[in-house]
Amino acid sequence: MSQINKFTLDNGLTVLLKEVHAAPVISLWAWYRVGSRNEQDGGTGLAHWIEHLLSARLKYQEKNSLNFIAQLGGVGNASTFFDYTNYYATLPAGSIDVAINMEAERMQLREFDLELAETERQVIINERRWKENEPDHRLHESLLAASFQIHPYRRPVIGYMCDLENMPLSVLQEFHSLNYQPNNAFIVAVGAFTTNNLLKQIEQHLSPIRPGTPPLQPYAVEPAQQGERRLVLNGEGKTSYLQIAFHIPEAGHVDFPAIAVLNAILSGAGPTHATSRLYRSLVDAELAVDVSCSTVPTIDPFLLTLGVTMRTGHSPHEAEAVIDEQLQRIAADQVDRAELQKAIKQARAQFAYSSESVTRQALWYGWSEIFADYTWFDGYLERLAAVTLDDIQRVAGTYLGRRNRTVGYYLPNNGQNS
Questions:
Q1: How far apart are CA 254 and CA 364, in angstroms?
Q2: How far apart are CA 180 and CA 33, in angstroms?
Q3: Distance CA 279, CA 282 (A)
Q4: What's the sign of the alpha-carbon dihedral 180, 185, 189, 195?
Q5: How far apart are CA 70 and CA 68, in angstroms?
Q6: Which pLDDT score, from 0 to 100, does residue 418 have?
Q7: Per 3-state DSSP, what percentage of the chain is helix, strand, and coil (rounded to 5)?
Q8: pLDDT for the residue numbered 55
Q9: Which domains can be identified in the chain, with CATH numbers?
Q10: 224-229 long-range CB contacts below 8 Å, 24 or more apart?
């Protein structure tokens, strides 16, 4: 990989630039170190609400920003997660000044249009209402709330309905003023540019923006779970669901690559998952119609989550028994070298595919800078390749035990799959 250069402007804004001249395009991302992790009880959903206000509704030369990007032959979007908010545009190299100007406009904004804020409040309330009608989403949200008793990862990124409906706009404005400033943000650009020239463009438009007082970062530490937690939801529908969440370390932890390979052993990686242990023992055995296992890179310790969509006539209890058997086998050293190498190959291939384009490279450099630092991205494939059988047995025994997990069932009101 070519070299990435890191700079810090006088106002505290960090800039990461990597030249890739394979095609005449540039992907530019603005990352803010604020997400639902930075919110408080009674003020959930603020980061996501602000993302709505600063993305599709942003005006550039009196045009909708995302529409204007599309007219230039580019693509753009925005997202909010536990640890961050980001905005990006991937454009023909000759039009990158548009993205820089947009980010300057975003970063300088100090007051919201009240009518627009109320309009977006209703958009998000409708989005929240739609999610509440999805049984697997309801179960996952309840699983987070049960898994974390102290840490803010227990709260949904979209926010709770009571907060979305009742928060005064003054709370929204205060949260924005505190967190959306250059010294709490950074720019990532990957593509066909000359580093010195692009840096000058960024400095010209973004360095005049005044910094603020650095916001206090969350310091809550989730205590070790002392025993298995269980929950059951009942609701509409005909399908039952099982979700199991295990506490695992943060993305920068030495065990994270081994957990990612263990994930591949359990459920595969990408389209190859049909040969994985859980797919064969649940889907091929016609107990379930789908199975998944996921880990997400985060600043603080998070979860490995198993999800199963049950086949009609079968219960979450049956799937839980199958999963327990597979976990016991792995912890008892019943993974051979061939299975390990297959899982490593799958995990490495999936990560490589997810970072091929300049857009995806910029995403991963930015995300890495959020939860660790940008060098995490460049070294991750090597760390996956170095995982051993002993590592798999150790992390399975350390993190996938009963006392470290929360189990959730969703059961239809009609009693099917109970």
A1: 19
A2: 8
A3: 5
A4: positive
A5: 5
A6: 52
A7: 50, 20, 30
A8: 83
A9: 4-206 (3.30.830.10), 229-412 (3.30.830.10)
A10: 224/404, 225/147, 225/403, 225/404, 225/405, 225/406, 226/403, 227/402, 227/403, 228/402, 228/403, 228/405, 228/406, 228/407, 229/146, 229/147, 229/405, 229/406, 229/407
Tokens for 220, please give them.
């809550």
Q: Confirm if 250 and 263 have CB atoms less than 8 A apart.
A: no
Q: How far apart are CA 229 and CA 50, in angstroms?
A: 34
- Please give the pLDDT value at position 271: 56
pLDDT at 180: 96
In the numeric block, the tokens 């269980």 are attached to 230
The residues of the chain scoring below 70 in pLDDT are 1-2, 56-63, 270-272, 415-418
Identify the pLDDT of residue 275.
84
The helix (run of H) or strand (run of E) holding residue 52 is helix 46-54
Are 84 and 251 contacting, i.e. CB atoms less than 8 angstroms apart? no
pTM above 0.90, yes or no: yes
